[in-house]
Design goal:
mainly alpha; 8 helices; globular; 202 residues; homotrimer
Chain lengths: 202, 202, 202
Protein backbone atom coordinates (compact mmCIF):
# COMPACT_ATOMS: atom_id res chain seq x y z
CA UNK A 1 0.00 0.00 0.00
CA UNK A 2 2.71 2.44 1.05
CA UNK A 3 4.70 1.27 -1.94
CA UNK A 4 1.84 2.06 -4.30
CA UNK A 5 1.42 5.51 -2.73
CA UNK A 6 5.16 6.07 -3.08
CA UNK A 7 5.03 5.22 -6.79
CA UNK A 8 1.99 7.47 -7.15
CA UNK A 9 3.77 10.36 -5.41
CA UNK A 10 6.80 9.88 -7.65
CA UNK A 11 4.58 10.08 -10.74
CA UNK A 12 2.89 13.29 -9.59
CA UNK A 13 6.19 14.91 -8.65
CA UNK A 14 7.66 13.91 -12.01
CA UNK A 15 4.69 15.59 -13.71
CA UNK A 16 5.29 18.79 -11.75
CA UNK A 17 8.96 18.66 -12.78
CA UNK A 18 8.16 18.25 -16.46
CA UNK A 19 5.66 21.14 -16.28
CA UNK A 20 8.43 23.39 -15.06
CA UNK A 21 10.28 22.46 -18.25
CA UNK A 22 7.31 23.52 -20.35
CA UNK A 23 7.12 26.86 -18.49
CA UNK A 24 10.81 27.44 -19.25
CA UNK A 25 10.45 26.28 -22.87
CA UNK A 26 13.09 23.60 -22.46
CA UNK A 27 13.43 20.72 -24.91
CA UNK A 28 12.00 17.24 -24.37
CA UNK A 29 15.20 15.99 -22.77
CA UNK A 30 15.11 18.85 -20.29
CA UNK A 31 11.54 17.82 -19.46
CA UNK A 32 12.61 14.22 -18.78
CA UNK A 33 15.61 15.35 -16.70
CA UNK A 34 13.43 17.62 -14.56
CA UNK A 35 10.84 14.82 -14.26
CA UNK A 36 13.47 12.41 -12.92
CA UNK A 37 15.12 15.03 -10.69
CA UNK A 38 11.81 16.06 -9.14
CA UNK A 39 10.40 12.54 -8.82
CA UNK A 40 13.35 10.81 -7.17
CA UNK A 41 15.61 13.71 -6.15
CA UNK A 42 14.30 14.11 -2.61
CA UNK A 43 14.60 10.41 -1.82
CA UNK A 44 18.08 10.20 -3.32
CA UNK A 45 19.37 13.11 -1.24
CA UNK A 46 17.77 11.57 1.86
CA UNK A 47 19.44 8.20 1.24
CA UNK A 48 22.82 9.82 0.55
CA UNK A 49 22.59 11.77 3.82
CA UNK A 50 21.64 8.60 5.71
CA UNK A 51 24.46 6.65 4.05
CA UNK A 52 21.90 4.25 2.53
CA UNK A 53 23.75 3.98 -0.78
CA UNK A 54 23.07 3.25 -3.55
CA UNK A 55 19.79 5.09 -2.93
CA UNK A 56 16.48 3.19 -3.06
CA UNK A 57 15.64 4.58 -6.51
CA UNK A 58 18.64 2.68 -7.93
CA UNK A 59 17.58 -0.58 -6.34
CA UNK A 60 14.07 -0.58 -7.74
CA UNK A 61 14.19 0.87 -11.21
CA UNK A 62 10.42 1.22 -11.38
CA UNK A 63 10.91 4.67 -9.83
CA UNK A 64 12.94 5.90 -12.80
CA UNK A 65 10.50 4.37 -15.24
CA UNK A 66 7.56 6.06 -13.52
CA UNK A 67 9.41 9.40 -13.72
CA UNK A 68 10.03 8.97 -17.43
CA UNK A 69 6.35 8.08 -17.94
CA UNK A 70 5.31 11.22 -16.06
CA UNK A 71 7.65 13.34 -18.16
CA UNK A 72 6.43 11.73 -21.39
CA UNK A 73 2.81 12.33 -20.41
CA UNK A 74 3.53 16.04 -20.00
CA UNK A 75 5.35 16.19 -23.33
CA UNK A 76 2.39 14.68 -25.16
CA UNK A 77 -0.72 15.77 -23.29
CA UNK A 78 0.44 18.81 -21.32
CA UNK A 79 -2.57 20.98 -22.28
CA UNK A 80 -5.00 18.31 -21.08
CA UNK A 81 -3.12 17.91 -17.77
CA UNK A 82 -2.98 21.69 -17.35
CA UNK A 83 -6.76 21.90 -17.52
CA UNK A 84 -6.93 19.47 -14.58
CA UNK A 85 -4.37 21.52 -12.62
CA UNK A 86 -6.45 21.56 -9.43
CA UNK A 87 -6.52 17.79 -9.47
CA UNK A 88 -2.76 17.66 -10.02
CA UNK A 89 -2.23 19.97 -7.05
CA UNK A 90 -4.45 17.80 -4.85
CA UNK A 91 -2.50 14.71 -5.94
CA UNK A 92 0.70 16.64 -5.25
CA UNK A 93 -0.50 17.29 -1.69
CA UNK A 94 -0.97 13.54 -1.26
CA UNK A 95 2.50 12.88 -2.67
CA UNK A 96 3.91 15.43 -0.23
CA UNK A 97 2.34 13.58 2.69
CA UNK A 98 3.49 10.15 1.53
CA UNK A 99 7.06 11.31 0.94
CA UNK A 100 7.18 13.04 4.35
CA UNK A 101 5.97 9.86 6.05
CA UNK A 102 8.50 7.65 4.23
CA UNK A 103 11.32 10.07 5.01
CA UNK A 104 10.40 10.24 8.69
CA UNK A 105 10.16 6.44 8.98
CA UNK A 106 13.51 5.90 7.26
CA UNK A 107 15.18 8.48 9.52
CA UNK A 108 13.80 6.68 12.57
CA UNK A 109 15.15 3.34 11.25
CA UNK A 110 18.60 4.94 11.08
CA UNK A 111 18.34 6.04 14.71
CA UNK A 112 18.12 9.78 14.12
CA UNK A 113 16.68 12.05 16.80
CA UNK A 114 13.61 14.29 16.49
CA UNK A 115 15.35 17.07 14.49
CA UNK A 116 16.78 14.46 12.14
CA UNK A 117 13.34 12.89 11.63
CA UNK A 118 11.78 16.27 10.83
CA UNK A 119 14.69 17.14 8.53
CA UNK A 120 14.47 13.87 6.59
CA UNK A 121 10.67 14.08 6.34
CA UNK A 122 10.92 17.56 4.83
CA UNK A 123 13.93 16.74 2.66
CA UNK A 124 12.20 13.71 1.14
CA UNK A 125 9.02 15.69 0.57
CA UNK A 126 10.46 18.89 -0.87
CA UNK A 127 14.02 17.96 -1.95
CA UNK A 128 12.96 16.99 -5.46
CA UNK A 129 11.19 20.31 -5.92
CA UNK A 130 14.25 22.19 -4.70
CA UNK A 131 16.48 20.40 -7.22
CA UNK A 132 13.89 21.10 -9.94
CA UNK A 133 13.88 24.82 -9.14
CA UNK A 134 17.68 25.08 -8.81
CA UNK A 135 18.12 23.35 -12.20
CA UNK A 136 15.52 25.67 -13.72
CA UNK A 137 17.33 28.63 -12.09
CA UNK A 138 14.35 29.76 -9.99
CA UNK A 139 14.33 30.63 -6.31
CA UNK A 140 13.17 27.30 -4.83
CA UNK A 141 9.45 27.40 -4.16
CA UNK A 142 9.96 26.15 -0.61
CA UNK A 143 11.62 29.33 0.56
CA UNK A 144 8.73 31.50 -0.65
CA UNK A 145 5.66 29.31 -1.29
CA UNK A 146 3.57 29.28 1.82
CA UNK A 147 2.59 26.12 3.58
CA UNK A 148 4.29 23.66 1.31
CA UNK A 149 7.41 22.76 3.26
CA UNK A 150 5.53 23.87 6.36
CA UNK A 151 3.01 21.07 5.91
CA UNK A 152 5.80 18.48 5.64
CA UNK A 153 7.57 19.95 8.66
CA UNK A 154 4.41 19.75 10.77
CA UNK A 155 3.75 16.20 9.57
CA UNK A 156 7.34 15.22 10.34
CA UNK A 157 7.11 16.84 13.77
CA UNK A 158 4.00 14.82 14.63
CA UNK A 159 5.87 11.65 13.62
CA UNK A 160 8.86 12.66 15.77
CA UNK A 161 6.67 13.42 18.79
CA UNK A 162 4.52 10.28 18.58
CA UNK A 163 7.60 8.14 17.86
CA UNK A 164 8.80 8.84 21.41
CA UNK A 165 5.65 7.17 22.74
CA UNK A 166 6.38 3.86 20.99
CA UNK A 167 3.29 4.09 18.82
CA UNK A 168 3.35 1.43 16.06
CA UNK A 169 4.83 2.60 12.76
CA UNK A 170 1.70 2.14 10.59
CA UNK A 171 -0.13 4.62 12.83
CA UNK A 172 2.78 7.06 12.64
CA UNK A 173 2.82 6.82 8.86
CA UNK A 174 -0.91 7.39 8.64
CA UNK A 175 -0.83 10.38 10.98
CA UNK A 176 2.03 11.95 8.99
CA UNK A 177 0.34 11.42 5.63
CA UNK A 178 -3.06 12.69 6.79
CA UNK A 179 -1.70 15.73 8.65
CA UNK A 180 0.75 16.80 5.91
CA UNK A 181 -1.72 16.31 3.07
CA UNK A 182 -4.55 17.85 5.08
CA UNK A 183 -2.61 20.97 6.05
CA UNK A 184 -1.44 21.43 2.46
CA UNK A 185 -5.00 21.12 1.11
CA UNK A 186 -6.37 23.48 3.75
CA UNK A 187 -3.60 26.01 3.05
CA UNK A 188 -4.27 25.82 -0.70
CA UNK A 189 -7.98 26.27 -0.22
CA UNK A 190 -7.79 29.26 2.13
CA UNK A 191 -4.53 30.61 0.69
CA UNK A 192 -2.87 30.70 4.10
CA UNK A 193 0.50 32.41 4.25
CA UNK A 194 3.34 32.93 6.66
CA UNK A 195 4.54 36.40 7.66
CA UNK A 196 7.53 37.82 5.73
CA UNK A 197 10.78 38.69 7.43
CA UNK A 198 11.00 42.46 7.61
CA UNK A 199 13.23 43.85 4.88
CA UNK A 200 16.29 45.76 6.03
CA UNK A 201 18.54 48.18 4.35
CA UNK A 202 21.87 46.71 5.41
CA UNK B 1 44.92 4.14 -21.39
CA UNK B 2 41.49 4.77 -19.86
CA UNK B 3 43.27 6.53 -16.99
CA UNK B 4 45.07 8.87 -19.39
CA UNK B 5 41.79 9.62 -21.20
CA UNK B 6 40.16 10.30 -17.82
CA UNK B 7 42.90 12.78 -16.89
CA UNK B 8 42.58 14.37 -20.32
CA UNK B 9 38.78 14.70 -19.95
CA UNK B 10 39.24 16.25 -16.51
CA UNK B 11 41.63 18.84 -17.96
CA UNK B 12 39.24 19.78 -20.77
CA UNK B 13 36.27 20.03 -18.42
CA UNK B 14 38.33 22.17 -16.02
CA UNK B 15 39.12 24.50 -18.91
CA UNK B 16 35.43 24.81 -19.78
CA UNK B 17 34.73 25.61 -16.12
CA UNK B 18 37.36 28.32 -15.95
CA UNK B 19 36.05 29.86 -19.19
CA UNK B 20 32.65 30.24 -17.57
CA UNK B 21 34.40 32.29 -14.88
CA UNK B 22 35.90 34.58 -17.50
CA UNK B 23 32.46 35.05 -19.12
CA UNK B 24 31.06 36.03 -15.72
CA UNK B 25 34.04 38.27 -14.92
CA UNK B 26 34.83 36.38 -11.74
CA UNK B 27 38.18 36.66 -10.00
CA UNK B 28 41.01 34.14 -10.37
CA UNK B 29 39.87 32.15 -7.35
CA UNK B 30 36.40 31.83 -8.86
CA UNK B 31 38.05 30.52 -12.03
CA UNK B 32 39.94 27.86 -10.08
CA UNK B 33 36.83 26.89 -8.09
CA UNK B 34 34.79 26.48 -11.27
CA UNK B 35 37.68 24.56 -12.88
CA UNK B 36 37.76 22.07 -9.99
CA UNK B 37 33.95 21.84 -9.75
CA UNK B 38 33.57 21.16 -13.46
CA UNK B 39 36.55 18.82 -13.73
CA UNK B 40 35.82 16.49 -10.83
CA UNK B 41 32.23 17.42 -9.85
CA UNK B 42 30.48 14.79 -11.94
CA UNK B 43 32.68 11.96 -10.70
CA UNK B 44 32.37 13.07 -7.08
CA UNK B 45 28.56 13.13 -7.24
CA UNK B 46 28.60 9.69 -8.92
CA UNK B 47 30.81 8.23 -6.19
CA UNK B 48 28.73 9.78 -3.41
CA UNK B 49 25.55 8.30 -4.93
CA UNK B 50 27.22 4.90 -5.22
CA UNK B 51 28.53 5.10 -1.66
CA UNK B 52 32.12 4.88 -2.96
CA UNK B 53 33.43 7.42 -0.45
CA UNK B 54 35.77 9.21 -0.25
CA UNK B 55 35.31 9.75 -4.00
CA UNK B 56 38.03 8.69 -6.44
CA UNK B 57 39.22 12.28 -6.91
CA UNK B 58 40.28 12.34 -3.25
CA UNK B 59 42.23 9.11 -3.56
CA UNK B 60 44.34 10.21 -6.52
CA UNK B 61 45.11 13.87 -6.11
CA UNK B 62 46.37 14.17 -9.65
CA UNK B 63 42.76 14.96 -10.61
CA UNK B 64 42.72 18.11 -8.49
CA UNK B 65 46.13 19.14 -9.74
CA UNK B 66 45.02 18.72 -13.36
CA UNK B 67 41.96 20.89 -12.63
CA UNK B 68 44.10 23.62 -11.12
CA UNK B 69 46.42 23.48 -14.15
CA UNK B 70 43.44 23.81 -16.48
CA UNK B 71 42.15 26.79 -14.51
CA UNK B 72 45.58 28.42 -14.46
CA UNK B 73 45.95 27.94 -18.23
CA UNK B 74 42.70 29.82 -18.78
CA UNK B 75 43.73 32.61 -16.43
CA UNK B 76 46.99 33.15 -18.31
CA UNK B 77 46.33 32.25 -21.93
CA UNK B 78 42.54 32.49 -22.23
CA UNK B 79 42.60 34.52 -25.46
CA UNK B 80 44.84 31.95 -27.13
CA UNK B 81 42.59 29.06 -26.00
CA UNK B 82 39.50 30.96 -27.13
CA UNK B 83 40.88 31.19 -30.66
CA UNK B 84 41.11 27.38 -30.70
CA UNK B 85 37.54 27.03 -29.38
CA UNK B 86 36.52 24.48 -32.01
CA UNK B 87 39.38 22.26 -30.91
CA UNK B 88 38.37 22.68 -27.27
CA UNK B 89 34.80 21.66 -28.13
CA UNK B 90 36.04 18.59 -29.97
CA UNK B 91 38.19 17.64 -26.99
CA UNK B 92 35.17 18.27 -24.76
CA UNK B 93 33.17 15.77 -26.84
CA UNK B 94 35.90 13.19 -26.22
CA UNK B 95 35.86 13.99 -22.49
CA UNK B 96 32.09 13.54 -22.50
CA UNK B 97 32.45 10.07 -24.01
CA UNK B 98 35.20 8.99 -21.64
CA UNK B 99 33.32 10.18 -18.56
CA UNK B 100 30.12 8.47 -19.72
CA UNK B 101 31.99 5.19 -20.21
CA UNK B 102 33.68 5.38 -16.81
CA UNK B 103 30.39 6.23 -15.09
CA UNK B 104 28.58 3.34 -16.78
CA UNK B 105 31.33 0.87 -15.91
CA UNK B 106 31.43 1.97 -12.27
CA UNK B 107 27.64 1.68 -12.01
CA UNK B 108 27.81 -1.86 -13.38
CA UNK B 109 30.52 -2.75 -10.81
CA UNK B 110 28.12 -1.62 -8.08
CA UNK B 111 25.41 -3.90 -9.43
CA UNK B 112 23.03 -1.22 -10.67
CA UNK B 113 20.41 -2.06 -13.29
CA UNK B 114 20.05 -0.50 -16.75
CA UNK B 115 18.44 2.76 -15.56
CA UNK B 116 21.15 3.13 -12.92
CA UNK B 117 23.89 2.57 -15.52
CA UNK B 118 22.39 5.18 -17.84
CA UNK B 119 21.92 7.59 -14.92
CA UNK B 120 25.52 7.23 -13.71
CA UNK B 121 26.93 7.50 -17.25
CA UNK B 122 25.07 10.79 -17.77
CA UNK B 123 25.76 12.07 -14.26
CA UNK B 124 29.49 11.48 -14.58
CA UNK B 125 29.54 13.08 -18.02
CA UNK B 126 27.41 16.17 -17.37
CA UNK B 127 27.37 16.52 -13.55
CA UNK B 128 30.43 18.76 -13.47
CA UNK B 129 28.88 21.08 -16.05
CA UNK B 130 25.65 21.24 -14.05
CA UNK B 131 27.53 22.24 -10.90
CA UNK B 132 29.49 24.83 -12.93
CA UNK B 133 26.28 26.39 -14.24
CA UNK B 134 24.47 26.31 -10.89
CA UNK B 135 27.47 28.01 -9.22
CA UNK B 136 27.55 30.59 -12.01
CA UNK B 137 23.78 31.05 -11.59
CA UNK B 138 22.89 30.00 -15.15
CA UNK B 139 20.21 27.54 -16.22
CA UNK B 140 22.31 24.37 -16.60
CA UNK B 141 23.28 23.85 -20.22
CA UNK B 142 22.05 20.25 -20.13
CA UNK B 143 18.41 21.23 -19.81
CA UNK B 144 18.57 23.46 -22.90
CA UNK B 145 21.70 22.63 -24.93
CA UNK B 146 20.79 20.11 -27.55
CA UNK B 147 22.53 16.79 -27.84
CA UNK B 148 24.98 17.19 -25.03
CA UNK B 149 23.40 15.11 -22.27
CA UNK B 150 21.56 13.25 -25.03
CA UNK B 151 24.84 11.94 -26.40
CA UNK B 152 25.87 10.65 -22.96
CA UNK B 153 22.44 9.09 -22.43
CA UNK B 154 22.61 7.24 -25.74
CA UNK B 155 26.17 6.10 -25.01
CA UNK B 156 25.14 4.95 -21.52
CA UNK B 157 22.11 3.13 -22.98
CA UNK B 158 24.30 1.20 -25.43
CA UNK B 159 26.52 0.17 -22.50
CA UNK B 160 23.46 -0.94 -20.51
CA UNK B 161 22.04 -2.96 -23.42
CA UNK B 162 25.31 -4.66 -24.39
CA UNK B 163 26.13 -5.30 -20.72
CA UNK B 164 23.21 -7.73 -20.59
CA UNK B 165 24.89 -9.85 -23.27
CA UNK B 166 28.04 -10.39 -21.21
CA UNK B 167 30.23 -8.53 -23.67
CA UNK B 168 33.70 -7.88 -22.19
CA UNK B 169 34.10 -4.51 -20.48
CA UNK B 170 36.82 -3.07 -22.76
CA UNK B 171 34.44 -3.43 -25.71
CA UNK B 172 31.62 -1.79 -23.73
CA UNK B 173 33.89 1.11 -22.81
CA UNK B 174 34.99 1.58 -26.39
CA UNK B 175 31.43 1.48 -27.74
CA UNK B 176 30.29 4.04 -25.15
CA UNK B 177 33.18 6.41 -25.84
CA UNK B 178 32.88 6.19 -29.62
CA UNK B 179 29.07 6.52 -29.69
CA UNK B 180 28.87 9.37 -27.17
CA UNK B 181 31.73 11.35 -28.70
CA UNK B 182 30.54 10.62 -32.24
CA UNK B 183 26.95 11.71 -31.60
CA UNK B 184 28.16 14.87 -29.91
CA UNK B 185 30.45 15.75 -32.79
CA UNK B 186 27.76 15.02 -35.38
CA UNK B 187 25.22 17.09 -33.42
CA UNK B 188 27.67 20.00 -33.17
CA UNK B 189 28.48 19.85 -36.86
CA UNK B 190 24.88 19.71 -38.11
CA UNK B 191 23.44 21.72 -35.20
CA UNK B 192 20.86 19.04 -34.44
CA UNK B 193 18.25 19.95 -31.87
CA UNK B 194 15.46 18.34 -29.93
CA UNK B 195 11.87 19.60 -30.08
CA UNK B 196 10.75 22.04 -27.36
CA UNK B 197 7.95 21.22 -24.97
CA UNK B 198 4.93 23.29 -25.97
CA UNK B 199 4.59 26.33 -23.73
CA UNK B 200 1.39 26.59 -21.73
CA UNK B 201 -0.33 29.42 -20.00
CA UNK B 202 -1.06 27.76 -16.69
CA UNK C 1 36.68 24.38 23.57
CA UNK C 2 36.66 23.50 19.87
CA UNK C 3 33.10 22.24 20.35
CA UNK C 4 32.01 25.59 21.80
CA UNK C 5 33.67 27.45 18.92
CA UNK C 6 31.93 25.10 16.47
CA UNK C 7 28.54 25.84 18.03
CA UNK C 8 29.36 29.54 17.97
CA UNK C 9 30.35 29.38 14.30
CA UNK C 10 27.13 27.54 13.50
CA UNK C 11 25.10 30.26 15.21
CA UNK C 12 26.84 33.06 13.31
CA UNK C 13 26.49 31.27 9.97
CA UNK C 14 22.81 30.62 10.69
CA UNK C 15 22.36 34.35 11.33
CA UNK C 16 23.99 35.18 7.99
CA UNK C 17 21.65 32.70 6.30
CA UNK C 18 18.54 34.19 7.86
CA UNK C 19 19.68 37.70 6.88
CA UNK C 20 19.79 36.58 3.26
CA UNK C 21 16.13 35.64 3.67
CA UNK C 22 15.29 39.12 4.91
CA UNK C 23 17.13 40.69 1.94
CA UNK C 24 15.07 38.50 -0.39
CA UNK C 25 11.81 39.20 1.51
CA UNK C 26 11.19 35.52 2.14
CA UNK C 27 8.76 34.31 4.79
CA UNK C 28 9.77 33.16 8.26
CA UNK C 29 10.02 29.53 7.18
CA UNK C 30 12.40 30.53 4.38
CA UNK C 31 14.50 32.33 7.00
CA UNK C 32 14.69 29.20 9.16
CA UNK C 33 15.49 26.99 6.16
CA UNK C 34 18.32 29.29 5.07
CA UNK C 35 19.55 29.48 8.69
CA UNK C 36 19.78 25.68 8.90
CA UNK C 37 21.24 25.31 5.41
CA UNK C 38 23.94 27.90 6.06
CA UNK C 39 24.72 26.78 9.60
CA UNK C 40 25.13 23.05 9.03
CA UNK C 41 25.25 22.75 5.21
CA UNK C 42 29.03 22.87 4.85
CA UNK C 43 29.62 20.23 7.51
CA UNK C 44 26.90 17.96 6.07
CA UNK C 45 28.38 18.09 2.56
CA UNK C 46 31.84 17.39 4.02
CA UNK C 47 30.59 14.35 5.95
CA UNK C 48 28.70 13.01 2.93
CA UNK C 49 31.84 13.33 0.78
CA UNK C 50 33.90 11.58 3.45
CA UNK C 51 31.31 8.84 3.83
CA UNK C 52 30.83 9.79 7.51
CA UNK C 53 27.05 9.28 7.40
CA UNK C 54 24.74 10.21 8.97
CA UNK C 55 26.58 13.55 9.18
CA UNK C 56 27.69 14.92 12.55
CA UNK C 57 24.82 17.44 12.65
CA UNK C 58 22.35 14.53 12.84
CA UNK C 59 24.20 12.90 15.69
CA UNK C 60 24.22 15.94 17.94
CA UNK C 61 20.96 17.79 17.44
CA UNK C 62 22.22 20.85 19.27
CA UNK C 63 23.52 22.06 15.89
CA UNK C 64 20.02 22.19 14.41
CA UNK C 65 18.65 23.86 17.52
CA UNK C 66 21.37 26.50 17.41
CA UNK C 67 20.52 27.17 13.74
CA UNK C 68 16.84 27.59 14.55
CA UNK C 69 17.75 29.97 17.39
CA UNK C 70 19.91 32.01 15.03
CA UNK C 71 17.10 32.17 12.49
CA UNK C 72 14.55 33.13 15.14
CA UNK C 73 16.83 35.88 16.44
CA UNK C 74 16.97 37.41 12.97
CA UNK C 75 13.21 37.17 12.56
CA UNK C 76 12.62 39.04 15.79
CA UNK C 77 15.52 41.43 16.25
CA UNK C 78 16.94 41.76 12.72
CA UNK C 79 17.19 45.59 12.85
CA UNK C 80 19.19 45.43 16.08
CA UNK C 81 21.56 42.80 14.65
CA UNK C 82 21.93 44.78 11.43
CA UNK C 83 23.20 47.78 13.39
CA UNK C 84 25.97 45.55 14.80
CA UNK C 85 26.85 44.25 11.33
CA UNK C 86 30.59 44.85 11.73
CA UNK C 87 30.55 42.70 14.83
CA UNK C 88 28.62 39.99 12.99
CA UNK C 89 31.19 40.03 10.18
CA UNK C 90 34.04 39.73 12.68
CA UNK C 91 32.28 36.80 14.33
CA UNK C 92 31.72 35.32 10.88
CA UNK C 93 35.49 35.49 10.24
CA UNK C 94 36.03 33.51 13.44
CA UNK C 95 33.40 30.96 12.36
CA UNK C 96 35.16 30.67 9.00
CA UNK C 97 38.44 29.84 10.73
CA UNK C 98 36.90 27.32 13.13
CA UNK C 99 35.02 25.51 10.34
CA UNK C 100 38.14 25.40 8.14
CA UNK C 101 40.14 23.89 11.02
CA UNK C 102 37.48 21.28 11.80
CA UNK C 103 37.16 20.35 8.12
CA UNK C 104 40.92 19.99 7.70
CA UNK C 105 41.24 17.86 10.83
CA UNK C 106 38.37 15.57 9.79
CA UNK C 107 39.86 15.14 6.31
CA UNK C 108 43.20 14.16 7.87
CA UNK C 109 41.42 11.60 10.10
CA UNK C 110 39.99 10.02 6.94
CA UNK C 111 43.44 9.74 5.43
CA UNK C 112 43.04 12.28 2.65
CA UNK C 113 46.09 13.86 1.04
CA UNK C 114 46.98 17.59 0.96
CA UNK C 115 44.49 18.54 -1.79
CA UNK C 116 41.74 16.66 0.04
CA UNK C 117 42.57 18.46 3.30
CA UNK C 118 42.45 21.85 1.60
CA UNK C 119 39.22 20.92 -0.21
CA UNK C 120 37.48 19.76 2.97
CA UNK C 121 38.69 22.80 4.96
CA UNK C 122 37.24 25.13 2.33
CA UNK C 123 34.08 23.07 1.79
CA UNK C 124 33.29 23.04 5.52
CA UNK C 125 33.98 26.75 5.81
CA UNK C 126 32.14 28.03 2.75
CA UNK C 127 29.78 25.17 1.76
CA UNK C 128 26.92 26.48 3.89
CA UNK C 129 27.20 29.90 2.30
CA UNK C 130 27.20 28.35 -1.18
CA UNK C 131 24.00 26.41 -0.42
CA UNK C 132 22.46 29.60 1.02
CA UNK C 133 23.24 31.55 -2.16
CA UNK C 134 22.13 28.76 -4.51
CA UNK C 135 18.80 28.46 -2.64
CA UNK C 136 18.38 32.24 -2.75
CA UNK C 137 19.25 32.13 -6.48
CA UNK C 138 22.32 34.37 -6.20
CA UNK C 139 25.75 33.74 -7.70
CA UNK C 140 27.53 32.20 -4.69
CA UNK C 141 29.55 34.81 -2.86
CA UNK C 142 32.66 32.61 -2.90
CA UNK C 143 33.13 32.89 -6.65
CA UNK C 144 33.11 36.68 -6.53
CA UNK C 145 33.65 37.87 -2.93
CA UNK C 146 37.31 38.46 -2.44
CA UNK C 147 39.29 36.78 0.27
CA UNK C 148 36.52 34.76 1.82
CA UNK C 149 37.14 31.30 0.41
CA UNK C 150 40.74 32.40 -0.13
CA UNK C 151 41.24 32.77 3.62
CA UNK C 152 39.91 29.25 4.23
CA UNK C 153 42.06 27.85 1.43
CA UNK C 154 45.21 29.44 2.87
CA UNK C 155 44.32 28.21 6.36
CA UNK C 156 43.65 24.71 5.03
CA UNK C 157 46.93 24.77 3.10
CA UNK C 158 48.88 25.63 6.26
CA UNK C 159 47.20 22.68 7.99
CA UNK C 160 48.08 20.38 5.07
CA UNK C 161 51.73 21.51 5.02
CA UNK C 162 52.31 21.35 8.77
CA UNK C 163 50.46 18.01 8.95
CA UNK C 164 53.28 16.42 6.98
CA UNK C 165 55.69 17.37 9.78
CA UNK C 166 53.77 15.43 12.42
CA UNK C 167 52.92 18.54 14.38
CA UNK C 168 50.31 17.77 17.08
CA UNK C 169 46.71 18.38 16.05
CA UNK C 170 45.87 21.11 18.60
CA UNK C 171 48.67 23.24 17.14
CA UNK C 172 47.43 22.58 13.60
CA UNK C 173 43.90 23.57 14.59
CA UNK C 174 45.11 26.76 16.24
CA UNK C 175 47.27 27.74 13.27
CA UNK C 176 44.38 27.15 10.86
CA UNK C 177 41.90 29.15 12.94
CA UNK C 178 44.26 32.07 13.54
CA UNK C 179 45.50 32.26 9.94
CA UNK C 180 42.06 31.92 8.31
CA UNK C 181 40.36 34.35 10.68
CA UNK C 182 43.30 36.75 10.57
CA UNK C 183 43.49 36.84 6.77
CA UNK C 184 39.74 37.35 6.53
CA UNK C 185 39.82 40.25 9.02
CA UNK C 186 42.80 41.86 7.31
CA UNK C 187 41.14 41.49 3.90
CA UNK C 188 37.91 43.03 5.23
CA UNK C 189 39.76 45.92 6.79
CA UNK C 190 41.89 46.79 3.76
CA UNK C 191 39.35 45.63 1.20
CA UNK C 192 41.89 43.40 -0.53
CA UNK C 193 40.78 41.85 -3.78
CA UNK C 194 41.95 39.29 -6.30
CA UNK C 195 42.45 40.12 -9.97
CA UNK C 196 39.57 39.33 -12.36
CA UNK C 197 39.91 36.90 -15.22
CA UNK C 198 40.05 38.89 -18.44
CA UNK C 199 36.71 38.88 -20.20
CA UNK C 200 36.62 37.39 -23.67
CA UNK C 201 34.24 37.64 -26.50
CA UNK C 202 33.90 33.97 -27.35
Amino acid sequence: MLYLLDIFGTLIFAISGAFKASQKELDVLGALILAVATGVGGGIVRDVLLGATPPAAFQDELYFIVCLCGGTLVIFIAPYIARQWNMVMAADALGLGVFAAIGAAKASHFGLGPMGIIFMASMTAVGGGVIRDVLANDVPAIVHTDFYATAAIIGGSLFAILYVFNIPEPVLLLVTIVSTTGIRLVAMHWKLSLPRVRRLKK
